[in-house]
Structure to design on (285 residues):
């Protein structure tokens, strides 16, 4: 998911061609205070006139307690991007306030309450401790994410490249997302020149169970895609497991072996997930 500053017209216009699975049009931290109104107008215009093709479009609004948050909602909600990203969420009461405003705006524009999704950002220690309650608060929430820079500041630590300081938070957030069966996105890697560091971090957070990673520069897309895209070897192995599963299921066999290793339901589900990520049509196997 590529962050694009809401006051950068060139990047906003070209957002769909960079190759990211999703773009995040940012009205919050990437925009200076004196540019907030201009960014809101620009992003609203782009949403109405630019075709981002198959790229999922999310807009990060300002926090509801800032002078800009509610104005952002009134400008963006009627345009119904794929999702709104809500920064620095800490409590269920806060989420309810936002949902009430969103629903009211949708009713005013005769819009459904189940089309535009919500992404909750966890960026404080309190948010981490409440993350499961936040993740399950509404069926409109289909993703949560960690904001590493703000979380590090809230915890009064310097965010290091090894990520040790926010490791507990990462794991807590992933667990909450998995419990609620929603997506979970990792924080950005701020050193755009350190490609090896980005790869190492992406490989680590993939092992933790993250769905994907936020990025701040188009140069980072290829590396993250490479880490998260199944390899040919993984695809062949998954296809072999799935075909064996289909064959054994037809014969009433629930547990079987592939290449000398036991295969049961969890192994099959992982194989199916690999094939889905590789856009393999299961009916063709």
């Amino acid at each position: 998911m590529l962050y694009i500053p809401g006051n950068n017209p060139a990047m906003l216009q070209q957002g769909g061609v960079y190759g990211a699975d999703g773009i995040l049009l940012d009205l919050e931290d990437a925009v200076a205070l004196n540019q907030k109104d201009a960014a809101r107008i620009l992003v609203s215009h782009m949403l109405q006139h630019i075709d981002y093709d198959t790229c999922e479009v999310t807009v990060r609004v300002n926090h509801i307690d800032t002078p800009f948050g509610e104005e952002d909602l009134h400008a963006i909600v009627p345009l119904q991007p794929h999702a709104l990203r809500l920064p620095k969420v800490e409590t269920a009461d806060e989420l309810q306030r936002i949902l009430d405003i969103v629903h009211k705006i949708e009713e005013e524009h005769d819009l459904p309450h189940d089309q535009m999704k919500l992404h909750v950002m966890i960026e404080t220690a309190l948010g981490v401790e409440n993350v499961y309650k936040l993740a399950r608060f509404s069926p409109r929430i289909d993703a949560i994410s960690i904001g590493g820079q703000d979380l590090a500041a809230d915890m009064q630590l310097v965010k290091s490249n090894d990520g040790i300081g926010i490791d507990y938070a990462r794991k807590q957030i992933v667990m909450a997302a998995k419990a609620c069966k929603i997506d979970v996105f990792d924080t950005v890697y701020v050193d755009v020149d350190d490609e090896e560091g980005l790869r190492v971090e992406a490989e680590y957070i993939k092992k933790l169970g993250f769905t994907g990673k936020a990025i701040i520069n188009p140069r980072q897309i290829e590396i993250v895609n490479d880490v998260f895209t199944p390899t040919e070897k993984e695809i062949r192995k998954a296809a072999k497991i799935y075909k064996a599963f289909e064959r054994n299921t037809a014969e009433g066999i629930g547990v079987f072996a592939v290449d000398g290793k036991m295969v049961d339901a969890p192994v099959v589900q992982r194989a199916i997930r690999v094939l889905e990520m590789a856009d393999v049509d299961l009916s063709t196997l």
In short: The chain is about 45% helix and 15% strand. The chain has a mean pLDDT of 95. Strands lie at 2-5, 22-26, 56-60, 83-86, 117-122, 141-146, 183-186, 212-213, 256-258, 261-263.
